[in-house]
Design the sequence.
């Protein structure tokens, strides 16, 4: 478990994070819109950057050994002219953790064996991210901190990466940040939502879903009626029924109940949006 | 540390090949006595190998100072970057010592030790200043352009421009000896060591 106390950070006089207190346990997801301060928060947790003033990060240890952290930054792309194997060798040597067997195990675990002699510049986005995870696991960390791992990946690569993270989560505590709710719901059991540098939620997935109880509706509208719906609430999902008819899921406090609106069971997305909109 | 250098050099193949080519050419020029004057060949040695080491260290630390991953990679290099630099400097100077000895064998009374120390001080000064400029600007092309400008100005004025610091020994008549190069050597060394101190404090 990682305990964060009074975490604040100013960058060029702009307050990016404001007095965040949280406990990161199990597989924690940090969710928030773009520019919320997730990357800065992740860098501070990973000790790449320092927080301001009274910031305190307490890493609870499982044993007496030093706490080790693996970090995968956003847009991981380094040493384009080196092969995957050489990059991993270089980074493990720099950490003084070079272990041939462990390296081979990681290549196997992350399905990178066939890419070991491939140059970094020739890898796809998904493979690059897996190399990124491999480098983060080089020091056999207690905590794996991953910043926006699915940015720029296609749907297949996203699914593959989430599966990989799930399999790794058995061995190491993972803290993952994302602005994509699916990244979080697929693997996390604890969640922190930040917006404009402030923590606005901490808890389980269930609790966030409950935030939109009684606020989630579905309706069928003509294509031209979409703008009308936008005025009364936040559209969560649009499905096409025919050329002109759309099935819309909407988050609203004021549904036109005499119309064709039907209350539906809320899901994670509706809970997350209601949180961001401050609906409840 | 040697393993780190070995792997990093794999990404600098072209530059290392160029370096090897210059060594071979210089070696041949000395053995074949292409130039009558030892100072001419020593001047070429300075003008080729001093800036080349500057470029080599810029490429070596490019990842650390000029990429989006700099802050992330910095966590790996903490306390090691200056050791990598020193090792690279040591390895680079070995063949240069051989060149200096070879010049003294082929062209008497050339003082190989004085030449080697002078060359070492120039390499130290040039590389540390290049690194500091590179760290400040985070741009390799501007850094290289600046030192091309400096070398061009030095060559064009043959080391007599009053507004420039003269790190090279450009006298073609007086043979290289400790008495001739001592003032340049000491000044280079002082500025070079100061530069190294600044570089070390930035990366440590």
Sequence:
């Amino acid at each position: 478990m990682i305990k964060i106390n009074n975490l604040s950070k100013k960058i060029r006089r702009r307050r990016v994070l404001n007095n965040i207190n949280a406990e990161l346990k199990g597989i924690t997801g940090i969710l928030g819109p773009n520019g919320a301060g997730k990357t800065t928060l992740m860098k501070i947790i990973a000790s790449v950057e320092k927080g301001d003033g009274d910031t305190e990060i307490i890493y609870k240890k499982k044993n007496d050994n030093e706490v080790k952290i693996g970090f995968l930054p956003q847009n991981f792309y380094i040493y384009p002219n080196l092969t995957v194997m050489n990059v991993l060798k270089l980074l493990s040597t720099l950490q003084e953790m070079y272990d041939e067997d462990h390296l081979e195990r990681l290549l196997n675990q992350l399905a990178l064996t066939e890419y070991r002699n491939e140059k970094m510049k020739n890898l796809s986005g998904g493979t690059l991210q897996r190399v990124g995870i491999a480098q983060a696991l080089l020091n056999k960390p207690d905590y794996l901190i991953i910043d926006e791992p699915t940015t720029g990946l296609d749907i297949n690569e996203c699914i593959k990466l989430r599966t990989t993270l799930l399999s790794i989560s058995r061995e190491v505590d993972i803290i993952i940040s994302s602005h994509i709710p699916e990244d979080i719901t697929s693997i996390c059991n604890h969640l922190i939502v930040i917006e404009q540098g402030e923590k606005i939620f901490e808890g389980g997935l269930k609790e966030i879903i409950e935030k939109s109880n009684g606020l989630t509706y579905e309706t069928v509208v003509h294509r031209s009626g979409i703008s009308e719906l936008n005025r009364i609430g936040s559209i969560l999902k649009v499905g096409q029924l025919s050329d002109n008819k759309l099935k819309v899921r909407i988050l609203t406090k004021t549904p036109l109940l005499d119309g064709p609106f039907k209350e539906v069971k809320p899901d994670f997305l509706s809970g997350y949006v209601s949180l961001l909109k401050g609906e409840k | 540390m040697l393993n780190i250098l070995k792997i990093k050099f794999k990404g600098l193949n072209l530059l290392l090949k160029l370096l090897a080519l210059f060594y071979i050419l210089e070696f041949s020029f000395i053995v074949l006595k292409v130039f009558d004057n030892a100072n001419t060949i020593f001047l070429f040695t300075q003008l080729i190998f001093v800036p080349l080491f500057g470029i080599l260290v810029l490429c070596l630390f490019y990842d650390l100072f000029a990429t989006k991953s700099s802050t992330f990679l910095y966590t790996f290099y903490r306390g090691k970057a200056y050791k990598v630099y020193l090792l690279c400097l040591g390895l680079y100077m070995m063949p240069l010592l051989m060149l200096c000895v070879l010049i003294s064998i082929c062209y008497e009374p050339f003082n190989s030790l004085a030449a080697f120390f002078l060359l070492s001080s120039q390499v130290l000064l040039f590389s540390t200043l290049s690194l500091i400029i590179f760290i400040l600007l985070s741009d390799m092309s501007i850094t290289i352009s600046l030192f091309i400008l400096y070398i061009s100005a030095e060559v064009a004025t043959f080391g007599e421009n009053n507004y420039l610091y003269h790190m090279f020994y450009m006298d073609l008549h007086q043979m290289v000896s400790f008495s001739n190069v001592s003032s340049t050597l000491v000044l280079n060394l002082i500025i070079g060591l100061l530069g190294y101190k600044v570089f070390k404090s930035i990366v440590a």
User: Anything to note?
Assistant: Residues 2-203 of chain B form one domain. The CA atoms of residues 134 and 143 of chain B lie 6 Å apart. Chain B touches chain A at residues 3-4, 7-8, 10-11, 63, 67-69, 71-77, 80 (CB under 8 Å).
